[in-house]
């Protein structure tokens, strides 16, 4: 869902850039308070994994593909603040070295995938896992959180593109949400598998008590 | 949360980049597909503002498409790891782990 240069008008990309700069500054300030030295490699590994996984497009339907976004994965395992820094780093490297996402669109891409996606995932996961306090409920929460994060990012991208005058909202929005409803299923499946694997590795029997339901995250 | 698990995590990321990325679906992703279908994909053509080293995740100067993708994936994965690590170290400058419990588990949360 990386927006290239050319889809957004100046007003929108400057506005999105200001918003995401503010969000990243807040994430820096927040993580400065809570992040510990020895947690740094985990952020690096998460960023590396999300970058690698984003390269692996999976087919969804009708000649369209999707790939993991990773905002939900990072937010659920490391908290939404760290997730914002992780996704921002991934997006900057993708833009600079691979031309995946435009330079002017970086602010919008950070807003959609590094800010909106992790926070929507985090909020959804907390809400649903508090409603259904069981292992199955936890799995459902992670799946739904991942799906919602992709839909929210697709909604934001549609608004940015439509408000730029590129294409009417009533045309771009249903198309974007339609495809990303399918892509979001892949996001949900991958995130559920990776979160359960990592949680087991960390030896936390009920990781939600620490990472999602119980705390502020990082 | 220990060093061994983190090393394994990085190796998994590198393996995904090296061995799975060549098998990625070449179909357009959601946004690209919508831009194609709704007739605004051309707006992005020739609008690149920077000259990326490995556009479309293809390592330059490698004849085989699969290998070029694998190499771009490996370089990118290491680059992202290094960038994230350095950015956090230099910009966030996290405090030492003193004052927290002795267990190595769960502190990441």
TrEMBL record, chain A:
Q: Where in the cell is it found?
A: Cell membrane
Q: How does it sit in the membrane?
A: Multi-pass membrane protein
Q: What is its main location?
A: membrane
**Which one Pfam family would you cite for this protein?**
CbiM
Question: Can you list the GO cellular component terms from the UniProt entry?
Answer: plasma membrane
Provide this UniProt record's keywords sorted from A to Z: Cell membrane, Membrane, Transmembrane, Transmembrane helix, Transport
Q: Does the keyword Cell membrane apply?
A: yes
Gene Ontology terms: biological process: transition metal ion transport
Q: Which InterPro entries match?
A: CbiM/NikMN
Kindly list the residue ranges recorded as spanning the membrane. Answer: 12-29, 41-60, 72-99, 105-128, 140-159, 179-202
Q: What is this protein called?
A: Cobalt/nickel transport system permease protein
Organism (species): Desulfofundulus australicus DSM 11792
UniProtKB/TrEMBL annotation, chain B:
Q: Which UniProt keywords apply?
A: Cell membrane, Membrane, Signal, Transmembrane, Transmembrane helix
Can you give the residue ranges of the PDGLE domain? 4-92
Q: Which domain of life is it from?
A: Bacteria
Location in the cell: Cell membrane
Region forming the signal peptide:
1-24
Which GO cellular component terms are attached?
plasma membrane
Q: Does the keyword Ligase apply?
A: no
InterPro entries cross-referenced by the UniProt entry: PDGLE_dom (IPR025937)
- Transmembrane ranges, per UniProt, are 67-88
Q: Please state what the protein is called.
A: Cobalt/nickel transport protein
Q: Which organism is it from?
A: Desulfofundulus australicus DSM 11792
Which taxonomic lineage is given here? Answer: Bacteria, Bacillati, Bacillota, Clostridia, Eubacteriales
């Amino acid at each position: 869902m990386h927006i290239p240069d050319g889809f957004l008008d100046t007003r929108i990309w400057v506005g999105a850039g200001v918003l995401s700069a503010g969000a990243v500054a807040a994430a820096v300030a927040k993580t400065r308070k809570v992040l510990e030295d020895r947690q740094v490699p985990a952020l690096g590994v998460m960023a590396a994994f999300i970058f690698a996984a984003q390269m692996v497009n999976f087919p969804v339907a009708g000649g369209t593909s999707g790939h993991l976004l990773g905002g939900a994965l990072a937010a659920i395992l490391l908290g939404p603040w760290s997730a914002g820094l992780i996704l921002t780093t991934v997006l900057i490297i993708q833009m600079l070295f691979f031309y995946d996402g435009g330079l002017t669109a970086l602010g919008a891409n950070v807003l959609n995938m590094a800010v909106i996606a992790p926070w929507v995932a985090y909020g959804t996961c907390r809400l649903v896992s508090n409603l259904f306090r069981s292992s199955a409920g936890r799995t459902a929460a992670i799946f739904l959180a991942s799906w919602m994060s992709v839909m929210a990012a697709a909604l934001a991208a549609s608004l940015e593109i439509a408000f730029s005058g590129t294409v009417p909202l009533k045309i771009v929005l249903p198309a974007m949400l339609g495809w990303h409803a399918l892509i979001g299923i892949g996001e949900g499946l991958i995130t559920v598998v990776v979160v359960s694997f990592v949680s087991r590795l960390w030896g936390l029997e009920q990781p939600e008590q620490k990472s999602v339901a119980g705390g502020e995250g990082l | 949360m220990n060093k061994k698990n983190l090393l394994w995590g990085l190796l998994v990321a590198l393996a995904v980049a090296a061995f799975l990325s060549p098998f990625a679906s070449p179909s357009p992703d959601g946004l690209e597909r919508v831009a194609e279908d709704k007739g605004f994909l051309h707006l992005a053509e020739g609008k690149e503002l920077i000259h990326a080293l490995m556009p479309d995740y293809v390592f330059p100067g490698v004849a085989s498409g699969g290998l070029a993708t694998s190499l771009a994936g490996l370089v990118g994965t290491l680059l992202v790891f290094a960038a994230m690590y350095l950015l956090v170290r230099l910009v966030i400058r996290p405090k030492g782990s003193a004052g927290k419990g002795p267990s190595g588990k769960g502190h990441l949360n």
